[in-house]
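Sanity check record (used in CI):
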Amino acid sequence: MPIMPSSLPLTRLLRSPSPPFSTLSLLLRRAMSSAGTAAADPVTPSNTRVGWIGTGVMGCSMCGHLIRAGYTVTVFNRTLSKAQPLLDMGARLADSPRSLAALSDVVFSIVGYPSDVRSVLLDSSSGALASLRPGGVLVDMTTSDPSLAEEISAAASAKGCHAVDAPVSGGDRGARNAALAIFAGGDPATVRRLEPLFSVMGKLNYMGGPGKGQFAKLGNQITIASTMMGLVEGMVYAHKAGLDVGLFISAISTGAAGSKSLDLYGNRILQRDFEAGFYVNHFVKDLGICLKECERMGLALPGLALAQQLYLSLKAHGEGNLGTQALILSLERLNKVSLENAGSFNV
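Expected output for Probable 3-hydroxyisobutyrate dehydrogenase-like 1, mitochondrial isoform X2:
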């Protein structure tokens, strides 16, 4: 992504004894025209350097797609071992978000919590915005507070930069298969310019101005929470009724009860595969943000509140690092049943 043109010729002119007003005006118009042209230049592997902060379950796969697409990528992660697969693919390593941003035109972040987002992007001494050059873009893909997304956008604008909030849905499989749903909020022209980057990770959905991407993702999480409750309750009911639960979920998957959650997690639950595609700890965080926004809006969503309590119970049992499909464990404990060996499953 091109950067704002150097102001050196103008600086020299200003230092001259008495620059002609007409010449000064002409140079200013040319500088503004050049800046507008640069802002319209397309994003391509040949002219856009990418920085990537956060190489966990989702981030590693997402960043890998950009490297395979030919982009020059610099990465930062607090745990070096999690960045190693990307370094093996040719990514460069930065020792801080600030040093990463100095080498980047577009900086992506996908970290754990809003406090992490604030740290890696806005910290005055080590954050990415501190060294991002004018015209650069911050793209936060973490599920975070809409108000923080608005704050980041305002801070970036004050530096002559841009910011987009672009959280994603689709879990680890969606990240690996470049099939994520991407909810983008920010200036529409900036989002449109970044589409070549988003397109290698999934489907871009423009939701509105700053913060609107986060609002859309939170609505997505509310929907997932209630869907997951319905899935595990149906499975427990089928088991208690004496059905082969594997046959049951296969049968309902093609009817009105079919869902992405069923497709992704039905067989995993039967196989007792609770490896995280998305951590319980992070889902508890997301649902907590949803409830906070509901309180601010004066909105009552009882299904959301119940789901958050059930997921909190997993965290209380030390199961926060399991995947969200581990919700079945809460229902099993409530009903003193186990779905282990409860039915066949399709591999």
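Residues 37 and 54 are 32 Å apart (CA to CA). If this sentence no longer matches the regenerated tokens, the check is flagged for review.
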